[in-house]
Amino acid sequence: MLRFASLGAKGLAGLLVGLAVWALAFSSETASASGETVTTELAPGWNVAGWTEAEAPVETLFEMIPDLEVAYAWDAEKQTFLWAVREESVHSRTLETLTPGMGLWLYLGGTEPFMWTRELLLKSGVASLQAGWNLVGWGGRDGISTEEALSHLEGLLTASWFWDGVTQDFGQASEGSGQTLARGDALWLEAIDAAQWLQLDGRMRVVFEREVSTAFQAETQAALDDVVVFFARHYNLVVEGITVRLKAESAGCGGGYANETIFMEEGCLNPAPHEYSHAVQEYLATLEPDGSWGTVRYKIGPAWLSEGVANTASAVYRDLAGIDSLDEHREHSRVAAITNPNDLASLEYNMGSGNYPLASAAAHWLIDKVGEQSLYEFYRVRPTSRSWQGAFFTAFGMPSGTFYREFDEYRRELAAGYPRLAGRVIGPDGQGVAGIRVDALPQEEGTYGRLWTNDEGELGGTILDGSYHLSLLPADSPCHLGWHGSDTGFTTDPSQIQLLELRGGEVTELLIELPRPLSELCTRIEGVVVDTNGDPIGGLWVTANAIREVYQQEGYSGQRTPETGSFSLDVRRGGTFEIRMVSRIARECTVSGHGGSGSRVRITVGDEDITGLLVTVVRQPPGDSRWVTCTAAE
């Protein structure tokens, strides 16, 4: 779990010693990034309040509050006070920087109260607690009872106190105390362990499709809270009303977002920051003037921007969490900018397969131009623009056409000096074949690349230096056709694959001739998955895997079954395949409706589709996802 620690003193000797033992609470406000402010009444004498603005030098505090004489903060990691005074002292100050959400002890001279107004940032509503005492600001709902405010910390706290600036005395923030909190207040809390305290009304509601343990529920909720905390702190954005539905079946780490709901696999929360970003985008772009969610009545913006922003936010999150490297993500995106032959304009409404790294490259380029905080500005201004192009100009300071031209020039500069692969794929009639995907598979050295043929069967693009095999598939199907090799430039025999050495600025020209029309190279294996009672099973990932596997692409075709349990797998004609599946519940499976030999079903596909397969699954209690290879039925 992410731990964003960011907790940041005229010697009140007796009082502060007592505070370190007792602990107190707050009095101010915290919320959004739209110019909202919060006002706290500070009384002469001691006050406890929260810093709700962006990070600032401590001098800012003395400029804002004329009668302020001394300010204390608490270093929760070191369990010690930090301090600063208005007048120079023989001792150097230890409090230098104010951070969002920081709790402050403030001593005011004079005889009159002071109304302290300051900007309110969402990120000040997220606190990192350490084991021991913590002095933290409150940035959640205004007027909330302390009992409700602390409910998410149940079992973690051993003490909680607030300070009354009028009576100059402590009060215990406990059940039945009647105490309420205003944004900008602050509390003294003693915790038994480190934790994040999400004070904002933005926790995602989690729905499980099956019964799970209380501990697993808590662990899942904490992981999702991390995502909300990250967006609050890093982008000053929080979306309320999001539901997360976790599917019991799990064959991977897929996710999706629609209708204020994130859909994910129960055992894998990796997509959470990506999908939460989509929720943020929709929320900002459809927010009505009254602050409520609107209805998506038009296309919000280009698909490449939406996915690029979501990818980048997820990469930053994973880097901070120590899961992946942001530098590696940027490098992967840079490679895509060099090797992906598509342009961004073609990805405005349909991302297609394999184009997400290119979208990330565009997002990183925008960051380098206008800064990371601008990424979501497009969605903020979208409701006030007649078109997404207008919002793009407002948010990023350039027309979309100018951005496309400059990004293309950036890609050309990156690609200079790398090898180019060019050529043509033709059919037996000598005519070009459109819609062929050519994957460049590195052999020990190189980086995976992908090209597509145009309407004339031509292909061309930049590939990084290395040694490659070329694998061919239809652009819209997982049916693996074969490889580049043999005298005709095409083969289905792995021993005939040609190794290509691509170096420097060389251009390699190819001619690949398919032995049959594309429509005759693939066929289908169709059937239905049922349990031992004959009832169809949905949600299982069913594949046809080639017996002789050299690459995953060879004969690999997969599909998740719908509620009807049916599947239809595209495979190469003439290939021999096994039926496999991955599931949390399937421990055995058998296939009937087609002849098989040996301990496993082996299906050889000719010119006709194989239909009528019945795959019977023996259910077991849900467990870890695993591959199950089906055997021939007796």
Please tell me about this protein's structure.
The chain is an alpha+beta fold and 634 residues long. The longest helix is centred in the middle third of the chain and has 22 residues, at 214-235. The radius of gyration is 30 Å and the shape is elongated. The relative contact order is 0.07.
Task: Explain briefly what this protein structure is.
The protein starts with 12 loop residues before the first helix and ends with a strand.
Question: What is the secondary structure topology, with strand pairs?
Answer:
Layout: H1 13-22, E1 37-42, E2 45-50, E3 56-57, H2 59-64, E4 68-75, E5 80-85, E6 97-98, E7 103-108, E8 114-119, E9 126-129, E10 132-137, E11 144-145, H3 146-149, E12 157-164, E13 169-172, E14 180-181, E15 186-191, E16 195-198, E17 205-208, H4 214-235, E18 243-247, E19 255-258, E20 261-265, H5 272-285, H6 303-320, H7 326-339, H8 356-370, H9 377-381, H10 388-396, H11 400-415, E21 420-426, E22 436-442, E23 449-452, E24 458-462, E25 466-474, E26 482-483, E27 500-502, E28 507-513, E29 522-531, E30 541-546, E31 557-560, E32 566-572, E33 576-583, E34 586-592, E35 603-604, E36 610-619, E37 626-629, E38 631-632
Helix pairs in contact: 4-5, 5-6, 6-8, 7-8, 7-11
Q: Quick check: average pLDDT?
A: 83
Residue share in helix:
10-25%
Shape: elongated
Uncertain stretches of 5 or more adjacent residues: 1-34, 549-553
Q: Note the total helix count.
A: 11
Instruction: Note the gap between the termini.
Output: 50 Å
Q: Structural class, judged by helices and strands?
A: alpha+beta
For the report, how would you describe the main beta sheet?
5 strands, antiparallel
The count of DSSP E runs of length 2 or more, i.e. the number of strands, is 38
Gyration radius from CA atoms, angstroms: 30 Å
Q: Report strand %.
A: 25-35%
